[in-house]
Design a protein that fits this description.
With 268 residues, this protein is mainly alpha-helical. It has a domain at 74-230. The chain contains 11 helices and 4 strands; from the N terminus they run H-H-E-E-H-H-H-E-E-H-H-H-H-H-H.
Length: 268
């Protein structure tokens, strides 16, 4: 009969064609195999649970980081955009008379202190420039701090740090360019330049100058906004695929082991 082997047994079909002992042995072997499968399934399920927990934690951290980046990006661009708009259209023609007042005081120890006071209009002009510089530097630092996160952020960081090629021009009115493209204000020099040559200040800082360039940088950054922060796949890499692979495999194994147990129960 087909299925009966040369040893007089029936191999894997002993439970169907063999004698009682052979049937019992075959049944025991089946249950033993099923027990091993169950143990393997339990291990796979434990591993799956750990994988899922770890991946949920990783994805939660990723979403938090992405949300924080996008929120800070939007805030920085909005602040700088508002500052650039104000600087671009600002009228630096300030009344010279009484614009700068200097007082000198000497204390009882003979220490002399000189205090410089600016008129309301001149102080407003200085504040407009310094507020812009502050927001511009915040943007530079933000992109510089995150430039290793993605190539796109690195490109935007390079764009914002391009002020160095006009360093001498900015310096002529009282702005110094750092090695990273950030700006610092020499208030006394800027105040005197505003009073003596307001058109030069407007030309260098206005729509055709620094403020206009900042708006171009902002426009470029905003055009890349949805692609600056890498996707989870790009950031985490093949770990996502691996987790998905093993997750699917574990579920398939569990289903197979469960079906085998049901089949044996039906037969016996």
């Amino acid at each position: 009969m087909a299925g009966i082997n040369s040893l007089g047994g029936v191999g894997n079909y002993g439970w169907l064609f063999g004698n009682n002992n052979q049937k019992q042995n075959s049944i025991n072997q089946l249950w033993s195999s099923y027990g091993n499968f169950q143990n393997n399934a339990a291990s796979a399920l434990a591993g799956l649970t750990e994988i899922n927990a770890n991946m949920k934690s990783v994805m939660s951290s990723y979403e938090d980081a992405k949300s924080a980046f996008q929120s800070e990006f939007s805030e920085n661009m909005e602040n700088l955009s508002a500052a650039a708009e104000k600087l671009k259209t600002y009228n630096f023609n300030v009344e010279k008379d009484g614009a700068i007042t200097t007082t000198t005081d000497t204390d009882n120890n003979g220490v002399t202190t000189t205090t410089t006071t600016y008129s309301k209009d001149l102080q407003s002009a200085l504040d407009t420039v310094t507020d812009f510089v502050k927001d511009y530097n915040v943007a530079i630092k933000f992109f510089s701090d995150h430039k290793e996160v993605s190539k796109r952020i690195g490109q935007v960081a390079t764009t914002f740090g391009d002020a160095s090629y006009r360093a001498s021009l900015y310096d002529s009115i009282g702005l110094t360019v750092g090695s990273d493209g950030s700006l610092s204000v020499n208030e006394a020099k800027l105040a005197n330049t505003i009073l003596n040559d307001p058109n030069k200040v407007s030309s260098i800082l206005g729509k055709d100058g620094l403020a206009g360039k900042a708006e171009n940088h902002i426009s470029f950054a905003n055009s890349q906004a949805d692609r600056l922060f890498p996707t989870a796949q790009e950031m985490i890499g093949d770990q996502l695929n691996t987790a998905s692979l093993y997750t699917g495999k574990a579920y398939r194994n569990m289903a197979a082991y469960s079906n085998m147990g049901n089949l044996i129960n039906m037969m016996f």
